[in-house]
Design a protein that fits this description.
Methane Monooxygenase Hydroxylase, Chain G, domain 1, binds flavin-adenine dinucleotide
């Protein structure tokens, strides 16, 4: 296996953007993905990408909205970089072929999104992620001489050299079951979020926190892990996402009494307040008995307010989702939704070039915590984050590679150990423990019950106990497939171990933060407390489990204020 300057783990938007940037900077690049790249979760991104490109807009307004959206936990220097580089990034996408929607004058059209002062979300109907991902993939294929693609390779762990720097990864070729050491001067983790820790979630089955756990196990700190976003509009039946673009186009939320309840919670922004605020409002309505549908567990999203022609043109994917997964024609009747897990603001701590405190290791995209989203991410800021910081990580890693020798980590005993560990999972007797899928289901339900929109000490403590027990049980969990070719079962067992590490970090951080900010609402500490908690919580792996720390929040121009929408 050849060695590379830059090895990228993950081929969603962050990974592909990093690969292009590193290749353009002259580096030899390899990009690894456990699924075909265009099946990465980025392909599901619907509503759009934010950039201050209209003449009335200014990147500082975008930055202020992002800071306020983050409940002042986002690092303002990083937010300034993201928002000021956004217009250039979107224009670059347009120039390489992304077919953004245009208005009647022929300019890029913009739609309204939550928490934004004005319309600044560029979009391709409601398939924005798919449109961008496919264009980037074409660009990667064009550069095949510089960018090696390892598609359907599963990374199991990071490799460190004797100095403790990251020097590559161990990966399994999913097709054959063969393990290899991939050596590189720099590794960029772009392996996405951890939505599958929860059930239900809007995230694809492959979003299992692999990179977060791998970095954590290798000694890199995690940050803001308590900040888990619940999206206000996910289908009651199964948690599938109805894009915020629906409300951006004019859809409204109603309780069982037909009341537009957001008037009470966010009189100015109404249904387009930030996601944490809208999700909490919905949950309060449900808890107080004004929910709709069976068990009064839902809220009506009324998309009939949007002209039918516009819905069929600009929101066609959710027309299909409503019909296929809820049996509802959204152009004619309201659909039942509720808050559901969608995104994690936390991840591997990085600086604004994607560098982690672990030498040779970068992270970008949802796996990373720069932190530009702080306590709550604004809709359509994640695609932007993946591209801006994916590019910056790619450029920086390529530059670093120029001045260093190829590392020489010892690999033979590591490969043998990992092969043995995988054989041990495959050999576990059926019935000797629980099934991997049962443990995963209990984890998801527990997190959704106790580590959700509202949290308290007792529930979090309970979640911590369950996660601890599930960790024990996972060591004996058995699988059915004993083969080597495309053994997804064994990968599922490995992913479960990553999810349990992510869950533990989330619960420990949520217990630690004794205040309410952004997505963390503690009913036992309902106020924001800037005196004690205007700080990031970091988590590193210690000998006896997670070790808590703090990191300062960078404030440049926006002092914390009371947050109202
Ligand atoms: C349904 C949905 C709609 C969304 N809509 C929007 C939107 O409109 N606007 C917006 O800004 N954001 C949106 N988001 C959020 C946004 O799409 C994601 O945060 C973003 O796409 C994540 O990109 P990524 O590149 O970090 O990771 P991903 O796209 O998740 O890619 C992760 C990559 O890592 C690889 N990988 C993971 N683990 C391993 C391993 N062990 N070995 C090898 N490879 C591995 C995967 O194969 C994949 O290629 C949406 C999210 C969802 C779920």
């Amino acid at each position: 296996m050849p060695e590379h300057d830059v090895l990228i783990i993950g081929a969603g938007l962050a990974g592909q953007r990093a690969a292009l940037a590193a290749a353009q900077a002259g580096a030899s690049v390899a990009i690894v993905s456990k699924v075909h790249p265009v099946r990465s979760h980025s392909v599901a991104a619907a509503g759009g990408i934010n950039a201050a490109i209209s003449v009335e807009d200014d990147w500082r307004s975008h930055a202020y909205d992002t800071v306020k959206g983050s409940d002042y936990l986002g690092d303002q220097d990083a937010i300034e970089i993201m928002c000021s580089e956004a217009p250039g990034e979107v224009m670059h996408l347009e120039h390489i072929g992304v077919t953004f929607h245009r208005n009647e004058e022929g300019r890029l059209d913009l739609r309204a999104f939550g928490g934004a002062s004005l319309k600044r979300t560029a979009y391709v109907a409601d398939i924005t992620g798919q449109a961008i991902l496919h264009v980037l993939y074409e660009q990667l294929m064009k550069r095949h001489e510089r960018v090696a693609r390892l598609e359907e390779w599963f990374v199991t762990s990071l490799l460190l050299d004797d100095s403790g720097a990251c020097a590559g990864v161990v990966a399994r070729d999913v097709r054959s079951g063969r393990l290899e050491a991939l050596i590189a001067r720099n590794v960029i983790l772009a392996s996405g979020g951890a939505g599958q820790v929860y059930h239900p979630t809007t995230n694809a089955l492959i979003v299992t926190g692999d990179g977060i756990a791998q970095a954590y196990r290798a000694g890199a700190p995690l940050m803001d892990m308590e900040m888990v976003q619940y999206h206000p509009t996910t289908l009651v039946e199964n948690g599938l996402l109805i894009t915020e673009g629906a409300r951006g186009e004019g859809a409204i939320l109603l309780n069982s009494e037909g009341e537009r309840f957001m008037e009470r919670y966010a009189p100015n922004k109404l249904d387009l307040a930030s996601r944490d605020v809208v999700s909490r409002a919905e949950q309060t309505e449900i808890l107080e008995g004004r929910g709709a549908g069976a068990d009064k567990a839902g809220i009506y999203l009324d998309i009939t307010k949007v002209p039918r022609k516009r819905t069929l043109e600009a929101l066609r994917e959710i027309v299909n989702i409503g019909r296929d997964f809820a049996g509802v024609d959204i152009t004619r009747e309201p659909i039942l939704i509720r808050p559901g897990q969608h995104y994690i603001m936390g991840g591997v701590k990085t600086d604004s070039n994607g560098a982690t405190p672990l030498q040779g290791l970068y992270a970008a995209g949802e796996v990373a915590c720069v932190s530009v989203h702080g306590g709550n991410r604004l809709g359509a800021n994640s695609l932007l984050d993946t591209l801006v910081f994916g590019r910056r990580a790619g450029e920086h890693a390529a530059a670093r590679a120029q001045s260093m020798p190829m590392p020489e980590p010892s690999t033979s005993s590591r490969l043998a150990d990992e092969a043995r560990a995988i054989d041990e999972i495959i050999a576990r007797p059926r019935g000797g423990g629980r099934r991997v899928s049962e443990i995963k289901a209990e984890l998801g339900q527990t997190m959704n019950e106790h580590v959700a929109v509202y949290r308290d000490q007792q529930g979090l403590q309970r979640a911590l106990e369950v996660v601890g027990r599930l960790k024990e049980e996972s060591r004996k969990a058995y699988i059915d497939d004993r083969g080597t070719i495309f053994n997804q079962d064994v990968l599922g067992a490995i992913e479960l171990s990553y999810m349990l590490d992510c869950a533990e970090a989330t619960v420990v951080a949520a217990l630690e933060r004794k205040e309410s900010r952004g997505a963390q609402f503690r009913t036992d500490f309902p106020a924001r407390d800037d005196e004690r908690w205007l700080e990031h919580i970091t988590i590193t792996a210690g000998p006896d489990g997670p070790r808590l720390g703090r990191a300062p929040v960078t404030i440049t121009q926006w002092q914390p204020e009371e947050r109202k929408y």
